[in-house]
Amino acid sequence: MPSISINDLQFAARFEGITGSAIREIFKLIAQPGMISFAGGNPSAAMLEDALIADIARDVLLRDGKRILQYGGTEGWPALREQVSAFLAGLGVAAAPEAILPTTGSTQGLDLLLKALVNPGDTVLAENPSFLGAFQAMRLYPARIVPVATDADGVIPEALEEAIRAHRPKLIYLIPTFQNPTGVTLTLERRKAVAALAAKYGVPLSEDDPYRDLRYRGEALPPIHSFDDSGFVVYLISFSKLIAPGMRVGAVTAPPALLRKLTIGKQSADTHMDQLAQAIVAEYLARGLLPGHLETLRSLYGAQLSRMLAHLDGMGLAHTVPEGGLFIWAKLPEGMDALQVLEKAVERRVAFVPGTHFYADGGHPEAFRLNFSNSSLEQIDQGMAALAETLRG
Amino acid sequence: MPSISINDLQFAARFEGITGSAIREIFKLIAQPGMISFAGGNPSAAMLEDALIADIARDVLLRDGKRILQYGGTEGWPALREQVSAFLAGLGVAAAPEAILPTTGSTQGLDLLLKALVNPGDTVLAENPSFLGAFQAMRLYPARIVPVATDADGVIPEALEEAIRAHRPKLIYLIPTFQNPTGVTLTLERRKAVAALAAKYGVPLSEDDPYRDLRYRGEALPPIHSFDDSGFVVYLISFSKLIAPGMRVGAVTAPPALLRKLTIGKQSADTHMDQLAQAIVAEYLARGLLPGHLETLRSLYGAQLSRMLAHLDGMGLAHTVPEGGLFIWAKLPEGMDALQVLEKAVERRVAFVPGTHFYADGGHPEAFRLNFSNSSLEQIDQGMAALAETLRG
Description:
The structure is a homodimer. Chain A is α/β, with parallel strands linked by helices. Chain A has helices at about 20-30, 50-70, 80-90, 105-115, 130-140, 155-165, 190-200, 255-270, 275-285, 290-315, 340-345, 375-390, and strands at about 35, 100-105, 125-130, 145-150, 155, 170-175, 205-210, 235-240, 250-255, 325-330, 350, 355, 365-370. In chain A, the strands form three sheets. In chain A, strands 2-9-8-7-6-3-4-5 form an eight-stranded mixed beta sheet, sandwiched between helices. In chain A, helix 4 packs across helix 8 (about 255-270). At the A-B interface, helix 1, helix 2, helix 4, helix 5 and helix 7 of A face helix 1, helix 2, helix 4, helix 5 and helix 7 of B.
């Protein structure tokens, strides 16, 4: 019998070509002190309310600790489902508590949707470019990702309809508000149009909307979900960008039969979510703390966005002009490659994410994504100056 | 164009025949006040240290809140990885912090292993009977489950070897200590034998060991992992039964290439785990609180186990005699069906889990599982009396 080495272990086919998130790898690269990071999508550390959360954690444990610490339902912490229901109502999304499944960030919401809907080799449609973490989740099913053209108004409905007809997708994945990576917001007319397409063709559309409350200018637009009567639009939210990413609390709302599949999928994935984080977020919302905190976030991040846009204009680089969110999408001068520029930029202690990672089909070496939430005005001045120097060579 | 209803939505093939965890459904059934539950695997509410955890939560947030509340690594909270490394060393499992991936309970550890190793239709070997939640996770890949014969000493190595040769499985799943559902512990010789089989045939063996520290009599046995030099034995632990299930903190240790796949799989599943729960468990372990707490648990649960065994003897029912854990496995008198008995028992305010759910291939209507950790001595007296009455008709 030949001896078998663990190094010869064969992994499942779904891992073929999967190398891990480029962003999470960049995180490690930039974990050095003194680095100014325009990479990640981290909230400002100053906006993380550690003392407040410490008090809330203690309060909920002293009040409900026996229940919080015991096994709970896969369906989620009841008070959180109620609070999310009220939160969604404020956005124009009608969802009873029973129609809501808390998830570990919206990441888990998408993963559970893929599990419920996608057979190996099925097609998922996504904006081009889109969130690379979502691509990785799709590829592990393994889904075929068909990118759909976008412009300054978001995904183009005609292109989406053509792709639906051509590819008969099992899921459409959109980030309509302050999109990751572009910062672009889908217009009102297009929101109505894509809701109608999901209904017309009977294709579930996952509306991933974690940034919508981070609006610094302009008028809020209703979610795509609010234009849908068919049930095919599934709404995903996250409190990661609004309260604290480290607690990983998000939620999904979907029609009963689909929600049941998501719940069964979650049973097998983790039995249920940590109930302490759920109880903390529920209490935070119940105390009415979110609106005031969002005002503070908007004021801070809005100023940081303006500052970064001014630097980009000063550098003469083409870029999107987001009205909110966490990201600006920009282009290097012709002939430059963001992967190469990043290497040199890191030597000057500034980092960003090369845009090619956000295209399902690669390419676009000139594009790059900048985050402005996690850097102070001074850091933005310093980092953008370092970036300008890098570009000058 | 025909109108398409959300009710006609087609789900992925992996959900065919999947109806959700029978135990989680029983949980809902028994959530009525006054019900004595020998179902679930819940710790005693009296053993959940809510005031202590409240203090620890506050302490870690006041000390490390900015880091806890920010995005973190998929690889897990560094202090938890260190504490788990030390904890495992105490069990004879050598694993550096970098070789450990914190997971949402051991449930997620198994799910990630399946994701890393199993293609649709591949075979997984499991004890017969075994944990039904694990079966559901396997079926969603979808894996073919081949049950392997067990006896009063645990899984039978000769049967395991035969099944390996016949089915070329991608994974072997064992719960060697105080097994769920039988309470049986794999003997020392068999631990060595199954470790050797995993190495000989190059098949990953997931050793799910959440109960091992809940030993009330007899001598602790080393994990299967401690007899493995090949790297094919993957060790899964959970602090759910030891500290608190509601925080969902477990961990897996595996060789580097496999751990990398688990980590990439986790990136897509949830980006990373709630860091507050990880930090609380790390601090609990760092303060050296676990040994004393385990003594208290053992004293309480040991007495409850003895009381329940005495009742079973008094009722003349065949049953296992576990030396620890949370479960006793028993048999109804010939001709009785546990599914039917459960319905009548619930009317008398006592519940258990019918054994058929724990057999991958069904059958065995006479078997049932009793939990003793979540009921006081008085509740055990009362509930077993109600069960005896139910059996008398």
